[in-house]
Structures are given as C-alpha cells and as structure tokens.
Design brief:
There is one protein chain. This protein has about 400 residues and is of the alpha+beta class. It is about 40% helix and about 30% strand. The chain has 14 helices and 19 strands. A hairpin with a 2-residue loop joins strand 14 and strand 15. Helix 1 packs across helix 6.
Length: about 400
C-alpha cells in the first residue's frame, strides 16, 4: 500500500494533521496503537489558545467547540488568601477557550470517520524504515499480520512513549530534560466549578489549581510528593487539602462531591532536537513535554501541526519545500518559548522540597512584581493566550 503521509499516533496531534491535510486533498493514513475508546478515555488539560481554536476551524471541526467552549478573558492567581486577576483580554485583546482535550479528540475522530478517512487501530510493532532515504516506509502488525505502507513523509505524532523519536539516531538526536521534584494529583468531580475563571493558587502548603470542564464538571489539582499514590488520597483528604491552599473566600464556596477520576502525573520539561530527520517529522508530545502549569501541552502540539501542515501544503500544492525544510527550526523556536513559560509558571507557584529561605524570598518577590506590574501581567497574558505562530 502507498499513501502520501503516514501519521503515527491517533492523539490530538495526528488527528489534527490528518484533518488539515484532508482539506487540501493530501492523503494520509493514521496508525494508532490503541483503540478510539482508549484514546478518548484519557483526561488531559482543557485550555485552548486562540491559534489552536483557529486550527480547529481551519480543519473544519470548530462547530462544537464554538457552541460549547467557554471563553475565558482572564485567570486568577493567588498566594495564601490574596487573590488577583490577570485579565488576558485587557492586556492582549485575546481570550482562551475552556474545552477539554478529550472533546477536541472526539471531534477530530468524528470528522475523520464522517469523511471516511483511513485509520488503523490496534497497529502493533510500528516501525519506520528508510526515513533518511527516498524509499521511506512504515511496517506494522494487525492481528499478527505484518503490513507495509510506502509514503513520501512520516509524521511522528505518537506521544512521549512512541517509537518515532527513537528512530532518529543518537548521533543526530539531542535531548534536554528537567524533572521536577513533585507531581500533580488531579480529580474530576461532578460539581459546579468553584469560580468562573481558573484559580492558580500558590500557598505555603504547595500549589493548587481549580479548573473545569463545564458548569457541572470540575477539575482540581494539588501538588503532591512524587512518592504519593492515588490510594494515599481519599476524596475527603483531597478536598481538605485543596481548601487549605486556595483563598478562604473561595474555599468557603467550594462544592465537594465524589471524584469520578483521580490520577497523579509527574512534571517534566523535555525537548528533543532536531524535530525532523529526513522524511520523518516529530510533532507534539513525541518531541516535547511541558509541565502542565500554563496548559501549553496541547497548544504547543497544535503549533507544530500548523508548521508541518503549511510545509506539506506548500510542498504538494506549490512544489515549494522551503517551509518543510524550515519545520524543525520554526517549531523549536516556539516550543522553547512554551517550555520557558511553563517552567517559569511552575517555579513561580510551587513549593520545591529543597527551597532555601532565599529561594522563598525570591519567589515571593517574583509574585509581588507580577501583582504590581502591568508589564509583568502583560507578559504572562501574552504567553498564556499563546505567542503568534
Ligand atoms: N504506534 C502507534 N501509535 C502509538 C505508538 C506506536 N508505537 N505509541 C503511541 N501511540 C499513540 C498513543 O496511543 C496515542 O494515542 O500515539 C498517540 C499519541 O497521543 P498523545 O500522547 O496524546 O500525544 P499528542 O497527540 O502529541 O498530543 C499532545 O497530549 O499529552 C498531551 O499535553 C499533551 O495535550 C498534549 C497532547
Ligand atoms: C485542566 O483543566 O486540566 C488544566 C487547566 C490549566 C492547566 C492545566 C490543566 O494549566
């Protein structure tokens, strides 16, 4: 079999690329190791930058997001009982949209199915061959049978644990990593969100985040030790700790209830360079990970897809490969800025186990500066709503 672009991974990166290519009549096959239900069972962040929203519209999948997403013009940051709104709209003229990544992925799968585009689920043992040659192809197994797909290009959209990145030889690949000494314990509960806007809360007991999916579905997180397990945290203990980390005025209003999901995620900053090797292009979590503070994961994946899509479009429709050749450089320039922002917001709001009194004072000064300076607020806002592509 032959296609123009093989997309490895049916997460948001791979699916968004598939839909965008389809709008230009460029053929692609998605190879996904799991099933659609498995992919849709994952709970991830839920903040979309303006650029991500535009890409969804461009891909023809913006209708439900437009109808059901919540536009947020700002966010609250708090320290102890002091809270403070950063108004994105005022500082940048732009907002963000609250719409879960699960819903983004569902819309993309629905559109892919409606258009009859090929997706191979349960694709095992996916391997990339000849990425640095003119005879690139991918092999994979379904039900024990090996298949081969020849192609012009391969988009490695298979997440952090995928095989695409590993295909790039270590003589070419350079990886940068920073692991944080804590995790986020998150719960989903069918309760009304404590506040209309998100609350990013710093406190002496550690960080907490109040987020949401809709009017009766809340998403809350607290910073926890890396050694903690979900079993260590009853719902009651979670709510109690959350209340102690957010301003009292909000804690008093917090509606609690049983959790319908509870999980712990470690925090990491990771980038691999380059993001292209021959005919293989890495996108999204396959190439980089950010800590979730600032919700840049999905949005940075989307900006990669923008650059790759524009490159492939110019290549196929105009015979011009310049944008494709610039992919790695352009994508990485934006990726590193998202990495910087996520690292900075993480450092600003969390308690690190080894913080000295001087570190604490410096962190407090960083917060005080932000609360007092329009320039600092504009900087946070422009990064939060998303830097231009
Ligand atoms: N073969 C085929 N598919 C694979 C393989 C493989 N060897 N390995 C992984 N996959 C699939 C996974 O099952 C998953 O569905 O690739 C997909 C990768 O999806 P994600 O991990 O969601 O990555 P991506 O699409 O880049 O989305 C980035 O997800 O983790 C968040 O914060 C991140 O929001 C960002 C978004
Ligand atoms: C979420 O709603 O899950 C969420 C929101 C903002 C973040 C991280 C996660 O920074």
């Amino acid at each position: 079999m032959r296609t123009q672009v093989v997309i490895i991974g049916g997460g948001p990166s791979g699916l968004l690329l598939g839909q965008l290519l389809h709008t230009q009549g460029i053929e692609a096959v998605v190879l996904e190791r799991k099933t659609r239900d498995y992919v849709l069972g994952r709970i991830r962040a839920g903040i979309l930058e303006r650029g991500t929203v535009s890409l969804m519209h461009k891909a023809g999948v913006g209708a439900r997001l437009e109808a059901e997403g919540f536009v947020h013009d700002g966010t609250i940051l708090s320290y102890g009982d002091d809270d403070f709104t950063i108004n994105f709209k005022e500082h940048t003229g732009t907002s963000v949209v609250v719409y879960g990544q699960t819903e983004v992925t569902r819309d993309l799968y629905d559109a892919r199915e409606a258009a009859g585009l090929p997706t191979v689920f349960n694709a095992q043992e996916v391997q990339i061959h000849g990425a640095d040659s003119d005879s690139a192809h991918v092999t994979y197994e379904v039900d024990g049978q090996t298949h081969r797909m020849d192609c012009d290009f391969i988009a490695g959209c298979d997440g952090f644990h995928g095989i695409s990145r590993q295909t790039i030889p270590l003589t070419v690949r350079k990886e940068y990593e920073k692991v944080y000494p804590f995790g986020w314990l998150g719960i989903l509960s069918e309760t009304p969100p404590v506040n209309d806007e998100l609350i990013y809360a710093a406190s002496e007991r550690g960080f907490a985040l109040c987020s949401m999916r809709n009017k009766n579905l809340s998403r809350y997180y607290i910073q926890c030790a890396l050694t903690d397990t979900v079993e260590d945290w009853s719902d009651a203990a979670f709510w109690e700790e959350l209340k102690r980390r957010i301003p009292k005025a909000h804690a008093d209003k917090l509606v609690t209830g049983p959790s319908i999901e509870k999980s712990i995620a470690p925090l990491r900053s990771f980038v691999t360079e380059p993001m292209r090797w021959g005919r293989l292009f890495l996108c999204g979590d396959a190439a980089h990970i950010v800590p979730p503070t600032g919700a840049k994961g999905l949005n940075t994946a989307a900006s990669d897809i923008h650059y790759l899509f524009e490159g492939l479009k110019a290549h196929y429709l105009e015979g011009d490969s310049a944008a494709l050749d610039a992919y790695s450089e352009k994508a990485l320039a934006r990726v590193w800025k998202a990495e910087r922002f996520s690292w900075w917001m993480t450092s600003l709001l969390h308690r690190f186990p080894d913080m000295s009194p001087a570190d604490l004072r410096l962190q407090q000064a960083d917060l005080d500066y932000l609360f007092a300076s329009e320039a600092a607020q504009t900087s946070l806002a422009e990064n939060y709503v998303g830097l231009p592509y």
